[in-house]
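It is worth pausing here to work through a concrete case rather than discussing structure prediction in the abstract. The textbook approach is simple: state the sequence, then state the predicted structure, then interpret. We follow exactly that order.
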Amino acid sequence: MTMISRLKILLALTAFSSLCFGSSAVSVSCHQRWPWNGKVDIDYVLQSSAAEPMFNVIFYGKIGDGESIRLTNLNGDGSSGLVVGAGEKRVTWDASAQFPSTSSDNFKVALAVEEIVEDPEYMILNLDDWTFSYANSTNQTTIAVGSDSKISEMWFRKIEPGTFMMGCATNEWDSSTAANEPLHSVEISKKFYISIFETTEAQYDRIASDTQGVSCLPKTRMSYDALRGAAAGATWPSQTDHRVDSDSFLGVFRAKLGNALVIDLPTEAQWEMACRSKGDGTFIGAGCWNDGSPYALYNNKTKDDNLANLAWYSGNSGSAMHEVGLKKPNLVGLYDMHGNVWEWCVDWFANSYGLSRQQLSQTTVDPVGGSSGSGRCRRAGSYSGNPTDMRISSRRAPMNGSTYADYGFRLVINMF
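Step two, the predicted structure:
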């Protein structure tokens, strides 16, 4: 299907038309900003019969019969190539930034749309051109020492919706913490994608400052406030309010993705669900590490051979963090969900997850943690911790401004 709309463009361009290829998009129209500031709004509607569709959207431009050029300087739906959900969409193109001195009476924009119908297991973000690709499996290259997936890419693993038992069973080892980790049923109603590695220094450099670092160590000394912001970023909890400060790390990251995707820190429930997932709709229960292996504690619970396969912790780390992805993953391919560095979650820390006794006896849907607190949650344990810190349900409450050497993070893409 091809759709054309025309409008007058002042200064840089004198005429403008848009075309759409593919039956997934209809009602394409272009509108210049007035007074003219060099920006053009491109509106379009995506159609799909799928419940949670995803699309690849690419914008091209050309002058007359010249060569097509992929448009840059985009902000909004489709600016990163990925669009989640059907319906009305808009992307804004800064025409004068990409073509500062071009004048033409025959400029065309082509909108190419393809629905992603296979529901891929992995989404891969290229941190050099800010576009997505997709895969259904990883390979040895993905996890190799110093691989691109730890430097210039970011791999996200799909976690399907489901219901699982969150927290610590009263008969589990170290269940003295059960007052803060009561076992209860949780439903996550929407799928999400979570990064398979803790965010590395090299990935952080590309996102935050466009520099070409190569370190595959986890990025640490990042406070919650630096990650999300202390103003808008402090408004959580609410599944409908994922605001962050524009000058925070996530604010900068979202802007580079066109502000169309809700990329964020995971909630505690998302983090624990991903850690426990077996990938087939079932989940790891009590008394196990996240690959399903049982606790194998000895030396007064300071060492565990099964844990050593999965985690850098006090028993094997040499008191230092290590490159991400060198240990065995959990059952859905997530690395370092035990140990290496603590990982920030978006929720306020609250005893019993901020739930009443009655709520704990029921299934809670998409929980958001406490309504307030002294600090946000951290999960996973670190290279300096004992096995008690490594348990799946283990949680701590640092201050939002904490910038310790063993505090890191991983990210999620929420599919709302």
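Step three, interpretation. The first strand starts at residue 5 and ends at 7. The first helix runs from residue 95 to 98.
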